[in-house]
TrEMBL record:
Its EC number is 2.7.1.26. One of its GO terms (molecular function) is ATP binding. This is riboflavin kinase. PANTHER family: RIBOFLAVIN KINASE, RIBOFLAVIN KINASE/FMN ADENYLYLTRANSFERASE. Residues 2-122 form the Riboflavin kinase domain. It comes from the Bacteria. SMART domains: Flavokinase (SM00904). Keywords: ATP-binding, Flavoprotein, FMN, Kinase, Nucleotide-binding, Transferase. It comes from Glutamicibacter uratoxydans (Arthrobacter uratoxydans). It catalyses: riboflavin + ATP = FMN + ADP + H(+). Transmembrane segments: none annotated. Gene3D superfamilies: Riboflavin kinase-like (2.40.30.30).
Length: 129
């Protein structure tokens, strides 16, 4: 289990364009965390929301030059989180990051990732100290 805290920043709206709105948090490179995770996000008021989270440079769009981002797609959630501090608890490593040949292939995989998160959404919801 890994915990990342940070402020939600405006990104390039690519997640929204792909149909997977994300809360973006800039973070330093951490090869141990690169990949797609099942997780939960603790909102400022303490509510917990299950999420599919990508950590990495978004290779399909930026290859090696992109900044490292944590992108959390909160399931069944549509509230505005810009500027809020979130605690993201990565609980279930699902797969490594891949560079896809086209956007349609990436979207298909994102649907698989979210379905896998839903299947495993029994994540422990206790917040680590």
């Amino acid at each position: 289990m890994h915990v990342i805290e940070g402020i939600v920043e405006h990104g390039d709206a690519r997640g929204r364009e792909l149909g997977f709105r994300t809360a973006n948090i800039t973070m330093p490179q951490n090869d141990e965390l690169d990949g797609v995770w099942g997780a939960y996000v603790v909102l400022p008021e303490g509510r917990r929301v299950v999420a599919t989270v990508s950590v990495g440079r978004r290779a399909t769009f930026y290859r090696e030059g992109g900044e490292v981002l944590l992108e959390a797609h909160l399931l069944d959630f549509s509230e505005d989180l810009y500027g809020q501090k979130l605690r993201v608890v990565l609980t279930d490593f699902q797969r490594p990051q891949y560079e896809y040949d086209d956007v349609d292939s990436l979207i298909r995989q994102l649907h698989v990732d979210v379905a896998q998160t839903r299947e495993r959404s029994h994540y422990p919801m206790a917040v680590p100290a």
